[in-house]
C-alpha cells in the first residue's frame, strides 16, 4: 500500500467514488514547509479555480489534510485524474509518514 496526502478535492467522498468506486478512510495530518497557491485549470466548460501545494520559504507554513492508504493501481488512477498542472512527489508528513502529494508542476 502507498500513502497519499490530500489537501483538496481528493478529500471529497463524491470524487473518491468517481475515481476509486469507494470511499477511502483517512487520518488527519499536515505537511510542513508548504503553502497553498491559487491555480486556474481549463476544464470542459471553462476555467476552474483550485489550489496547489508549493514549497514555502517559511518552514513553519503548514497545509492541513488527510492521508489515505491506496494501492499502486489506485495511485495511477489519481495520476490520471489530476491534470498536468500537478506533479506527484513524496514528502514527509508531520506525523513522520512518507506520503505522495500533488504539487505544482513547474
Automatic annotation (TrEMBL):
Gene3D superfamilies: Gamma-glutamyl cyclotransferase-like
One family name in Pfam for this protein: GGACT
Keyword entries, A-Z: Transferase
Highest taxon, organism lineage: Bacteria
UniProt xrefs under SUPFAM superfamilies: Gamma-glutamyl cyclotransferase-like
All copies of domain Gamma-glutamylcyclotransferase AIG2-like, residue ranges: 4-103
GO MF annotation, one: transferase activity
Transferase keyword on record: yes
Name of the protein: Gamma-glutamylcyclotransferase (GGCT)/AIG2-like uncharacterized protein YtfP
Species annotation: Flavobacterium nitrogenifigens
Lineage of the organism: Bacteria, Pseudomonadati, Bacteroidota, Flavobacteriia, Flavobacteriales
Amino acid at each position: 500500500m502507498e500513502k497519499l496526502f490530500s489537501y483538496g478535492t481528493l478529500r471529497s467522498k463524491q470524487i473518491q467514488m468517481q475515481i476509486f468506486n469507494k470511499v477511502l478512510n483517512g487520518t488527519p495530518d499536515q505537511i510542513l514547509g508548504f503553502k497553498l497557491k491559487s491555480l486556474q485549470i481549463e476544464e470542459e466548460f471553462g476555467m476552474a479555480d483550485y489550489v496547489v501545494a508549493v514549497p514555502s520559504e517559511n518552514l513553519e507554513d503548514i497545509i492541513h489534510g488527510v492521508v489515505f492508504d491506496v494501492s499502486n493501481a489506485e495511485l495511477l488512477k489519481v495520476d490520471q485524474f489530476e491534470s498536468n498542472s500537478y506533479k506527484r512527489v513524496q514528502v514527509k508528513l508531520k506525523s513522520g509518514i512518507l506520503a505522495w502529494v500533488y504539487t505544482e508542476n513547474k
